[in-house]
Write a structure and sequence with these properties.
The structure holds two protein chains of two kinds. Chain A is of the alpha+beta class. Chain A is 52% helix and 14% strand. Chain B is globular and about 70 Å long. In chain B, the strands form two sheets. A four-stranded mixed beta sheet of chain B has the order 1-4-5-8. Chain B has a four-stranded antiparallel beta sheet with strand order 2-3-7-6, with no helix packed on it. Classes of the chains: A alpha+beta, B alpha+beta. The complex binds flavin-adenine dinucleotide. The site of flavin-adenine dinucleotide (FAD) has 19 residues of chain B, from strand 1 and helix 11. Chain A: GO terms for molecular function: acyl-CoA dehydrogenase activity; flavin adenine dinucleotide binding.
């Protein structure tokens, strides 16, 4: 039976990630960093990847990883979502690891150990991809990929082409930072002009599909983390903020909205756990679980962030308050790996509910 | 031995087709395979609750008779856990077996005309009888589902009007065949009468049928109410197992009804129904041992909203057919049926889902206060003696 709970080991992992993030990625630190020349925190990344060893959780120990599973990865994502921490985990530890796991490429060792940051060169908005904007002639690659996550700090880019998936040195490419809607997850446009690539897999389509599906399944856990932070923070705030000589959280209109949000977050947890477990165990229901995860958890995270802003009043609309970072993350996530609507359309095919 | 092994052995020794259904069900109860999480001797084996579904599946696969849970839902979902938790050994042995086998149907005499959401404000009085061996009950209950079928009722009544309302309540088991119990049908929006009014006039209850201490009835009732919410909303089901399955079935069979707008509406509800189902599964995994907490309210809230939205979509989908109905005959059904009959029936019956077992507004209060720790509602009735409350 699918296990939708958290194991003791998972809870221990959560606790160590949470305490690291509390130390190193407090809101002031994140806010100060996002407008600096180094929006991504590579020191924090090294602490996560090397000290805590979470860069390649599902990779067997022999392959440089932690010998755990995607379930543990999802717990790390919950915590990263809670902190909107600017680290290259999504690109490296989700997309690149998922793309490389099926291959026996030696690059996996370094990526899983966190010693070389890699990412998959696809637009972050892609839910599925069948055609490529980069072409390969022999081992020379040309073309442009827009809105690539974590490409700004990556050392290796995994580039899909009609001839297969190639690894290229990031410094050989032209990387233009994008002004990203989500400041804690900077995107980069990547242009390749005759860059030399090393073929990793002849099946780019299959590899990218696997990676994007893992992304969709696991992003739900990050969305859960975002939503939980927004709910908890808002509940605490309305307990202390007083207007008309009583706590604003004592008004029933507010209580009921937060109760409804709690119900949605409770559901999102079950849905995200299901997706992570299906991915970890190779369950044949994974395509449904991943599409369901995005169709459900995307809007919940957005709703939670919107309620967080509204129920904080004016302070929630300021740059100095963290709420806007969560709103931007939630909104961007809703367009990451396909929209909720596109995942509903995918489900229609999967569960035989044709238009 | 495991519950799976015991089930196999039991089925080998008891041919479900040879034995009379009642004898088979009694034997199953005595073997501890009725509800495995209950203690030995009371139909269970003291095992984790989640093992029950595999046991049930094995019995179904063997063609065994079941206890018709839709007929005895109040007994199974509400009376039984309350008796188990608060009853004496003698009470448990007397009531649980015929409750589970379906020999005796139970109903719930909680709500009153003046006490619905504010259940603790109830006015039905129970007064010690002269010789001190029992109680005499007078009052009126309302919306009592299945009272017309019931042999027993769980009842809360006021035993002390001079203390604040939550403190003066006592919990009883009432024999529905006792003199002075009168059951009158109440016709519902669906046309039939699943529920009733129950008038209690000088009804005698022996003190041995009291559940929990005198004045502790509100605490005992919490067990019933928490379990009720899970019983209504938290049932195990396969994907597309609830009303969503009815609509998807229509969708697949009737392509001529499809429109793009309805397609997206259907997919949204499919997603929500599946999320609610997984939430129920996770809730059951969490409470594999122990009692449900206020989280059960989430399942009940979701169940009500989804049933209403899905049944409304079905009517949208059906177009002209939704203008017509099968019949409005006044009947007194013998089972509580959320999914049966027509789309129109489902739509109407679902309206009850957000009222019965605690309204959705009250459940949101419960979630806000007990789960999120938000301040309680301002209230004027907490410290006043019940008799002094404005009525
Ligand atoms: C189909 C059906 C079957 C039932 N079966 C049984 C049964 O077997 N046994 C039994 O005992 N009862 C049964 N009930 C009764 C049910 O529990 C009550 O109807 C319910 O608790 C609401 O009480 P009420 O009808 O008095 O409404 P009221 O409490 O008068 O509520 C009226 C409206 O006010 C709202 N409201 C009340 N208080 C608040 C508040 N503090 N904050 C915000 N809103 C509030 C309610 O949500 C509702 O919308 C059944 C009801 C139905 C519909």
């Amino acid at each position: 039976m699918t296990d939708l709970l958290y194991s003791d080991v998972e809870e221990e992992l959560r606790a160590s990630v949470r305490s690291l993030l509390a130390d190193r990625a407090g809101f002031e630190a994140v806010l100060a960093r996002i407008e600096s020349p180094e929006p991504v925190d590579l020191k924090l990344w090294r602490a996560l990847a090397v000290d805590l060893g979470v860069a390649g959780l599902p990779v067997p120990e022999a392959g440089g990883g932690a010998g755990a599973s995607w379930r543990e990865t999802s717990v790390v994502l919950e915590e990263l979502g809670r902190a909107v921490a600017p680290v290259p985990f999504l690109g490296n530890s989700v997309l690149a690891v998922a793309a490389l796991l099926g291959t026996s490429d030696p690059l996996l060792d370094a990526v899983a150990a966190g010693t070389r940051v890699a990412t998959l060169a696809v637009p972050l908005s892609a839910g599925t991809l069948k055609t490529w904007t980069v072409t390969a002639e022999g081992d020379r690659l040309d073309g442009t990929v827009t809105s690539v996550v974590d490409a700004g700090v990556a050392e290796v880019l995994l580039v899909p082409t009609a001839a297969g998936l190639y690894a290229v040195e990031a410094t050989d490419t032209e990387r233009t930072p994008v002004v990203s809607f989500d400041l804690t997850r900077p995107l980069t446009d990547v242009t390749l002009r005759g860059v030399t690539g090393r073929l990793i897999s002849a099946d780019a389509a299959g590899t990218v599909e696997r990676a994007l599906r893992a992304g969709a399944a696991l992003l739900a856990s990050e969305q859960l983390g975002v939503a939980e932070w927004c709910l908890t923070t808002t509940v605490e705030y309305v307990k202390t903020r007083r207007q008309f000589a009583r706590q604003v959280g004592s008004y029933q209109a507010i209580k009921h909205r937060l109760a409804d949000l709690w119900v949605s977050v409770t559901e999102a947890r079950a849905v995200a756990r299901y997706a992570a477990d299906c991915l970890a165990t190779g369950d044949p229901d994974l395509p449904v679980a991943a599409a369901l995860a995005q169709a459900f958890c995307s809007p919940v995270a957005v709703k939670a962030a919107e309620e967080c802003v509204q129920l904080h009043g004016g302070i929630g609309f300021t740059w100095e308050h963290p709420a806007h970072l969560y709103l931007k993350r939630a909104r961007s996530n809703a367009a990451t790996f396909g929209s909720a609507a596109s995942h509903r359309a995918t489900l229609a095919g999967l569960v035989d509910l044709p238009a | 031995m495991t519950s799976a092994g015991l089930t196999r052995d039991f089925l080998a020794a008891h041919d479900p087709h040879a034995l009379a259904p009642l004898d088979f069900l009694r034997a199953r109860f005595d073997a501890g395979l009725a509800w495995v999480q209950y203690p030995e001797g009371l139909g269970g084996l003291g095992l984790p609750r989640e093992e029950q579904s595999a046991v049930d599946e094995a019995f179904t696969a063997a063609g065994a008779p079941d206890n018709n849970p839709r007929r005895i839902g109040i007994g199974l979902g509400m009376a039984a856990p309350t008796i188990l938790r608060h009853g004496t050994d003698e009470q448990r042995h007397r009531w649980l077996r015929p409750l589970w086998t379906g020999e005796e149907v139970w109903c719930q005499l909680f709500s009153e005309p003046g006490a619905g959401s504010d259940l603790a404000g109830l006015a039905t009085r129970a007064i010690r009888d002269d010789d001190g061996t029992g109680w005499v009950v007078d009052g009126q209950k309302v919306w009592t589902s299945m009272a017309h079928e019931a042999r027993w009722a769980i009842l809360i009544a006021r035993t002390d009007p001079s203390v604040p309302k939550h403190q003066g309540i006592t919990y009883f088991v009432l024999d529905m065949t006792a003199p002075g119990v009168e059951v009158r049908p109440l016709r519902q929006a669906t046309g039939e009468a699943e529920f009733n009014e129950v008038f209690l006039t000088g009804v005698r209850i022996p003190d041995t049928d009291r559940l929990g201490a005198v004045g502790e009835g509100w605490a005992v009732a919490q067990t019933t109410l928490m379990n009720e919410r899970v019983a209504i909303g938290g049932g195990a089901s396969p994907r597309e197992g609830g009303v969503i399955g009815v609509v998807t079935d229509v969708w697949r069979k009737r392509p001529e009804l499809r429109t793009p707008a309805l397609h997206d509406a259907l997919l949204r509800l499919w997603v929500e129904a599946e999320a609610a189902r997984l939430t129920g599964t996770r809730l059951r995994q969490q409470m594999a041992v122990g009692q449900p907490g206020p989280e059960g309210s989430a399942a009940k809230l979701l169940f009500a909203r989804l049933n209403q939205e899905i049944s409304a979509l079905e009517l949208d989908l059906l177009g002209e057919e939704g203008l017509r109905h099968d019949e409005w005959t006044m009947r007194r059904p013998t089972v509580v049926d959320f999914a049966g009959r027509t789309a129109g029936y489902r739509y109407l019956r679902a309206k009850g889902n957000s009222i019965e077992g605690g309204t959705s507004e009250i459940l949101r209060n419960i979630v806000a206060e007990r789960v999120l720790g938000l301040p309680p509602e301002h209230r004027l009735d907490k410290d006043l003696a019940w008799k002094d409350l404005p009525k």
